[in-house]
Write a structure and sequence with these properties.
The protein is built from 17 helices and 17 strands. The strands form three sheets. Strands 1, 2, 6, 7, 8, 9, 10, 16 and 17 form a nine-stranded mixed β-sheet that branches. The protein has a six-stranded mixed β-sheet with strand order 4-12-13-14-11-15. α2 runs parallel beside α14, α5 crosses α7 and α5 crosses α8. It has 533 residues and is an alpha/beta fold. The radius of gyration is 28 Å and the shape is globular.
Length: 533
Amino acid sequence: MFHCVAATSTDEQQTSTEHLNANNDDPAEPELLDLAIVGAGISGLMAARTITEKQAGIQFRVFEKSAHPGGLLGGLKTRWITPHHFHAVNLCRELNIPLTTVWRQSEVSNTRRSLQSIGPFGEFGPSKSHGSVFASMREMLVRLESTRFMSELDCLATVKFIPRNSENMEHFLCKKLLFEASRRFFRFLIKIGTGFYPSELTVSDCLRVFRSMSSVSDLYGMLTLQNGHLQPLGSPNWEPLVEQLVSRVGSENVNYSTNIVQLEISSVQRREIVSLTDSTGKRWRARYVILAVSCLDLLQISFRPTQPLYFQQPNSQLGLWAMANFTVRYPAPYWRDHDFTGCIFSPAQSLVCYESGHNQLSGTYFSPLRGVVDDTERHLIRDTVLRLLRANFNCRTMQKPLECTIEVHPIPFYFDVFPTFERCVIFASTNVSCWYRGFINGSIQGGIRAAILALLEIRPQTITFREVTDMQCIHFKYFQRRSATERFWCSLNLASASRLLLGAGAVLLTFGVCRMLFRAEFWNGWSDGEMPV
């Protein structure tokens, strides 16, 4: 979103800032910053790095509520990137951070046995290969139906303008999918991907979120370990990236353990000034503010005098609410002894798991727990995860790890906001990210975009044309023009085929009944000695 602003010179803007500070009669009034950045995650640090590299004399400060920077890295969507994540790959190249493919013990092993992964469509766990022919046929149909419907969603989402469709997404799933296993898979995928259940979204809302994540198939591919996934060499939790960004920004410009809870916008000499207040009552002032926080944290910040309009929050009573990121280390890769790769994507068990290192598994377990998780609930989650690993890999020793670490967080959710509010508050993070929303690449792109918007207001003469075009919300190269034939082909599924067959069957049945009635009437008339007309 662009703003028509006058290109005020740097000297005039600096003089104006000094004039505002000099006219403040209250000695306790905090110093006026040019820019305040709330959040020291990847998005906030990228915004601060972009501002710093301009060397335009902009006075800024970053506020982080936790005691360390980086945000929630190494979690559900921030474990790895792909070569298609241009901004993430380019940033690692600029910071000299070597990338490597995600380590897989099955690839370095000299075994010749065929190892299998546990996918989302088998209902009988690891014993499904011993099931009946009917069960195998049903699983194949579920897989075919889900793959076809995923292609249809990609066809609907990867367009420039998504048509308005107010139909409930849950009704849309039931109409399009024939098997309950397929519906359960997409309910789980939509929940962990968007933070909302299908019943809380319209079709248009769901497609817009999927489009910002590139596509449904890309989302599913990012949540499961695939060939070509990348992570920093020797550090799967992306600490080198965070350390490099903090060093570029300057640790003296970051305030840790500072939870901003209120923004108050006031007008001073025809200029908007934002007052920031933390949970202890301490105040700061800034001409512009970048909010680089999650949607959940964004809802905890109050605005005065008016509040921005946000999308509704997820209904906490519908089911899954928390995600437990776990890492389990064993003396040996017991799962490989039972012919498994260690990869699990199970909607029925609310479990995602993959092999993350030498004799090590990592993943996420989703639970309905809400609020602060105490030690008893944490032990319950640990026992549940180990029990599920034992059941899936059919190995009792999976319940006896050397080490098990668990971090519990709410499932992140996403909604769209306008890029700016009252022209002085700029939203970053993945709320207005350009592409791959919710992933590392989306956070990087969102931070760059917020910094460019702030520079357009503070120092517009420092912005290049390339930076403005790169800032755009969606890259047009990702949009695909599809013909009517392609759209019709993508819409074909088992449910549509069954309706077509039922419709054709009903026509044939009606024709057959009419023919039988006609023949019966003919013979009745013939037996009465009358030739029916």
